[in-house]
Amino acid sequence: MIAAANIPLLQVRDLHVRFGAKDVVRGVNFDIAAGEKLALVGESGSGKTITALSLLRLAGDAVVQGSAVFKGRDLLQLSEREMRGVRGGDIAMIFQEPMTALNPLMTVGRQISEVLELKQALSQAQSWQAAIELIASTGIPEPERRAAAFPHQLSGGQRQRAMIAMALASRPALLLADEPTTALDVTLRGQILDLLADLQRQTGMAVLLITHDLNLVRRFADRVAVMEQGVLVEQGDVAKVFAEPAHAYTRRLIASQPKRDVDEGEPDAQASPVLQAQNLRVVYPTPLPGVRGWFKKGEFVALHGADLRLFPGHTLGVVGESGSGKSTLAQALLGLLPYQGAVEVAGRTWQAPAARNTKPNQRLRQQIQVVFQDPFSSLSPRLTVEEIVGEGLLVHEPGLPAAELRQRVEAALHEVGLSEEQFPGLLARYPHEFSGGQRQRLAIARALIVQPQVLVLDEPTSALDVTIQQQVLALLQRLQRDKGLSYVLITHDVDVIRAMAHQVLVMKDGEIVENGPVAQVLDAPRHPYTQRLVAAAGVVDMKFQ
């Protein structure tokens, strides 16, 4: 339905949201017109998601005040029965993480058809056919087969498309999209945004996009509203706000693109690689259909003959989409899974089988450490900061006196910018008491304390806000300069590769399709796949010295 002329589809006025004594949203005002795309941006904790959830009265025990007039009715004054008709009907929502938002015990098609039965009163057969058509409209191949699949049987991009299909099943007038592309590769992000834009044009629905990715805002939205600590500090047309930001917080967000600050010198001609691999191949056994599967296993080649070299003080960027083989390559380099070919770390090889924790392998593990993508899940919630950071020393230097152990822990924390002055009782705190960026600093300190030569960085900033991402990258750059560390940086973020890497490997379907200096690969890509990755990133060109 198209709203009457000059009357917004949704008018939010003086919205306040409070949990207990804490105000998390304060005096928010904005409008959305029919068919308009509004982006609500800000860092984690700014109140973006709570604002959207409050519109649907899904903010739990929060006290919500103000007004949210949608099609002439104040959503905050409707009864719960009336709100059930609005939720998933006139207003639908796409959640950030489809794997947790979708029911793992129901097929994707059944979950979509359930909405159609409830909201459009279709029969079971009609709703199933309509669900298949919706899945097809989102670009998922083989929609009949995918409709019968469970969420875990789909890729991340397919799960997000299924969420979009479910949200569109009721033909909503307003779609709330909460970080719909955060967990996706750069090319998939573009595809999902293009899909939303196409569907929005076809249906005339309005979209409220909640995100901290400013590149997506530039590409997708008509208008942008910026939130800081529960307050809407600026809003206006995307082009005007990005060209002439009025508020200091908006200026800081826009300026928070990764900055390149690395030693651009060539490797010492006499230096040996600190990490190298030759003809590295990883194969997983797979079941064969029929009787053959009783006697023989098939094989899936996850990594095809990879070659690489990493020199002291340099960063090797590994970029590619999900399923390209990036993580398999990292695990092989870390000696965490069986492989064919040769891997050398600091001039020594893993003792076969590489995954076995023999004495030689344990000594080699001290030279190559890893920092994972999500620090919240990689840090034990039951251990204190002192126990987490010092754990590696207990393994690699078990005879260390307790006083020296604590001193080494404090020194490692200080190196990553965490101190007792900032956080009283720091050593006795637990991971949940820190922000995402601070937890990632803890993860880096845990890796550094055993004094490795190589760090494998597995998407180290993808879960962080842009300003925190910039701080963590600056920290990694400083540590590399001060300590001569070498990094294997695994990411799908071309911005991060531009800021950090000296050499780049581009991976697709388990193969290295392009390899070379970062400026050459990203500024003049030869392979069509690399060209597509760089184009999808939509980043501003950065000059390399």
Give the SSE layout.
Layout: E1 10-19, E2 22-32, E3 37-41, H1 48-55, E4 63-70, E5 73-74, H2 80-86, E6 91-94, H3 98-101, H4 108-120, H5 124-137, H6 143-147, H7 156-168, E7 174-178, H8 186-203, E8 206-211, H9 214-220, E9 223-228, E10 231-237, H10 238-243, H11 248-254, E11 275-287, H12 292-295, E12 297-310, E13 315-319, H13 326-333, E14 340-345, E15 348-349, H14 359-365, E16 368-371, H15 375-378, H16 385-396, H17 402-415, H18 436-448, E17 454-458, H19 466-483, E18 486-491, H20 494-500, E19 503-508, E20 511-517, H21 518-523, H22 528-537
Parallel strand pairs: 3-8, 3-9, 6-7, 7-8, 13-18, 13-19, 16-17, 17-18
Antiparallel strand pairs: 1-2, 1-4, 4-5, 9-10, 11-12, 11-14, 14-15, 19-20
Name of the CATH first level of the domain at 1-87 and 213-255: Alpha Beta
- Helix and strand content put the structural class at alpha/beta
CATH superfamily of the domain at 1-87 and 213-255: P-loop containing nucleotide triphosphate hydrolases
Residue share in β-strands: 15-25%
Shape by Cα distribution: globular
Helix percent reads: 25-40%
Per the CATH scheme, the topology name of the domain at 1-87 and 213-255 is: Rossmann fold
User: How confident is the prediction overall: mean pLDDT?
Assistant: 87
* Number of E-state strands: 20
In the CATH hierarchy, the architecture of the domain at 1-87 and 213-255 is 3-Layer(aba) Sandwich
Identify the strand order in the major beta sheet: 6-7-8-3-9-10
Low-confidence stretches: 539-545
